[in-house]
């Protein structure tokens, strides 16, 4: 891993603002999920790939009750077919 040369302070609530350059380069948008983990002495953050709640497909997603569902699963559900 390389250093970006950009330093940020941690506030009293433990928050850190990600610089816009980093958000843009990783395609991080408002509302995206970020996984935070530890690797030795490093804090590692990565964008969580979002996919359908049922099949994990990242294609043609709709939001329903704070869940993402792809068009194919919506069709299966509306037809009463099981989701495999």
UniProtKB/TrEMBL annotation:
Instruction: Specify the SpoVT-AbrB domain's residue ranges.
Output: 5-50
| InterPro entries named in the record | Repressor-like_regulatory, SpoVT-AbrB_dom, SpoVT-AbrB_sf
Enumerate the PROSITE patterns for this protein.
Answer: SPOVT_ABRB (PS51740)
Entries under Pfam families matching the protein: MazE_antitoxin
* SUPFAM superfamilies linked to this entry: AbrB/MazE/MraZ-like (SSF89447)
Q: Which NCBIfam families match?
A: lp_hng_hel_AbrB
Give the protein's recorded name.
Answer: Unannotated protein
Per the UniProt record, the source organism is freshwater metagenome
């Amino acid at each position: 891993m390389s250093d970006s040369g950009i330093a940020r302070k941690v506030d009293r609530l433990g928050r850190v603002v990600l610089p816009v350059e980093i958000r843009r380069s990783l395609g991080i948008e408002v509302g995206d999920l970020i996984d935070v983990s530890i690797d030795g002495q490093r804090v590692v953050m990565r964008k969580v790939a979002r996919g359908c709640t049922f099949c994990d497909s990242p294609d043609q997603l709709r939001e329903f009750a704070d869940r993402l569902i792809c068009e194919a699963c919506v069709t299966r559900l509306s037809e009463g077919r099981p989701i495999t």
